[in-house]
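A.,

Following up on our hallway conversation. Structure tokens first:
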């Protein structure tokens, strides 16, 4: 397939952003609406509707989130080698919509089926739209971080809207309706992308249309074979989610194999390229720890907000699901313009901190956010924390996220050779996968026991003590990790010097 728009004309844009970024912004915005709309309801649905205990619900949630972030390794590889990013995004979006609609079916059995479909769909969608964003910029373009920050704002606009609408409707009116609304907006995102994808020029097209259409021994094209195998993976994930305890025996071998494969491929590169991959892997390890703590937002913090945060504001009782799953995005949207302008201002003066320092700042602020929750617990009224402390804690979590997540996406696309970008984006999400699974384990440590016979749970005062204890540990470990990364950042900067 030939394109009238050349890659050079796209990358030689004037101003802060290429026009193609707007398309990717809105596509990702509606996909994130779907993802975060579902995320707002998952754990609350398991605890309040399916009547799972806290520990079980947290680990299943962590397993699901881990699978969500592990699958992009395969999705990125298939896009690089066969499908191209555009087809992968479209196929992934179709599955994400389908998974949401299945979860909207009002029978308990639909829950794990829908979750499994979401896992496969996200694997195709998530790494490839970020790869396209990276391809809009030439190597060394100082506007890249600002572009990813703008793109990240699109993620959070969708997350905010999805968290508010699906969280409110699901928790206050009907759980299944909340899931269904998430699917409707995924279709909207797909329409936006399919209708306007021509402006991407050659970016995201398959490496070879001939190979893609070539017949396999089964008599179907390689493209159709990929789609068919994707559907066959769904029952596998249904089993993994249903028997979630087996997941720990799967994720470690998968991660080791992926890491060895990256090292094997990188060993064939020149020294400078190999060192860049090494830096990328170090940043990825720290990002995994960040997500293990940060992703309490969809797990333990969802339950904490429901049980121990005063949701009464000027006479109105707010939905804890809507508040907890939108407040972070609201802060990210509000803060992103300041970060975008700040990074560009520092870059123009050759004073912009490198990616390692930004990661360290992210971990330090994340730790501060959790410590504010601990302070709030000390001033709680009958076990109920003021929303002021809850909001302030999320403010620092959000500013920490902006120092790490969009910067990480940008850094991986810069540090990776062109033929490894999709793979390395997949590894980035695989590390997030480890973090997500660990988040579920950490969340299970905050399980609030209940009396099975009476159905009564702990009082707010008793549950607050459990949450506060673990939040304190998270705060100190996160801050300590940030300090360690600051210490080694000069060494990492030397290894990155060819792109600084």
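Then the amino acids I'd put at each of the 500 positions:
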């Amino acid at each position: 397939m030939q394109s009238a728009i050349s890659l050079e004309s796209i990358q030689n844009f004037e101003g802060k952003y290429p026009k193609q970024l707007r398309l990717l912004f809105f596509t990702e915005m509606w996909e994130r609406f779907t993802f975060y709309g579902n995320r707002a309801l998952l754990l609350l649905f398991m605890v309040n509707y399916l009547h799972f205990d806290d520990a079980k619900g947290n680990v299943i949630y962590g397993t699901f989130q881990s699978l969500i972030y592990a699958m992009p390794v395969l999705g990125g590889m298939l896009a690089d080698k066969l499908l191209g990013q555009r087809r992968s995004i479209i196929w992934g979006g179709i599955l994400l919509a389908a998974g949401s609609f299945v979860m909207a079916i009002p029978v308990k059995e639909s829950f794990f089926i829908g979750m499994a479909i979401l896992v496969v769909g996200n694997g195709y969608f998530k790494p490839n739209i970020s790869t396209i964003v990276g391809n809009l910029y030439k190597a060394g373009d100082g506007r890249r971080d600002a572009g990813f920050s703008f793109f990240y704002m699109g993620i959070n606009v969708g997350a905010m809207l999805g968290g508010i609408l699906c969280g409110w409707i699901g928790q206050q009116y009907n759980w299944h309706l909340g899931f269904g609304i998430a699917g409707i907006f995924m279709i909207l995102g797909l329409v936006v992308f399919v209708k306007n994808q021509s402006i991407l020029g050659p970016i995201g097209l398959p490496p070879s249309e001939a190979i893609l259409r070539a017949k396999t021994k089964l008599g179907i094209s390689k493209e159709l074979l990929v789609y068919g195998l994707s559907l066959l993976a769904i029952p596998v994930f249904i089993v993994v989610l249903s028997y979630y305890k087996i997941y720990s025996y799967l994720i470690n071998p998968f991660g080791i194999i992926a890491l060895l494969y990256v090292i094997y491929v990188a060993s064939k590169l020149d020294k400078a390229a190999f060192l860049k991959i090494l830096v990328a892997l170090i940043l990825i390890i720290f990002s995994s720890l960040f997500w293990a703590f940060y992703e309490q937002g969809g797990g333990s913090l969802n339950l904490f907000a429901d049980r121990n945060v005063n949701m009464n504001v000027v006479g109105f009782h707010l939905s804890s699901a809507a508040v907890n799953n939108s407040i972070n995005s609201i802060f990210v949207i509000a803060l992103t313009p300041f970060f975008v302008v700040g990074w560009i201002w520092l870059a123009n003066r050759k004073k912009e901190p490198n990616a390692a320092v930004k990661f360290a700042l992210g971990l330090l602020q994340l730790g501060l956010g959790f410590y504010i929750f601990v302070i709030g617990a000390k001033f709680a009224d009958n076990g109920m924390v003021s929303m002021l402390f809850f909001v302030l804690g999320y403010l620092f979590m959000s500013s920490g996220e902006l120092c790490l997540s969009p910067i990480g996406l940008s850094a991986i696309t810069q540090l990776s050779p062109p033929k490894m970008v999709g793979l390395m984006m997949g590894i980035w999400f695989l590390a997030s996968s480890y973090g997500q699974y660990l988040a579920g384990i950490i969340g299970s440590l905050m399980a609030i026991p209940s009396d099975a016979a009476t159905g009564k749970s702990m009082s707010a005062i008793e549950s607050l003590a459990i949450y506060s204890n673990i939040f304190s540990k998270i705060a100190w470990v996160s801050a300590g990790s940030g300090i360690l990364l600051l210490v080694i950042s000069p060494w990492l900067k030397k290894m990155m010097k060819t792109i600084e």
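The longest strand covers residues 312-313. Curious whether your intuition agrees with the design.

B.
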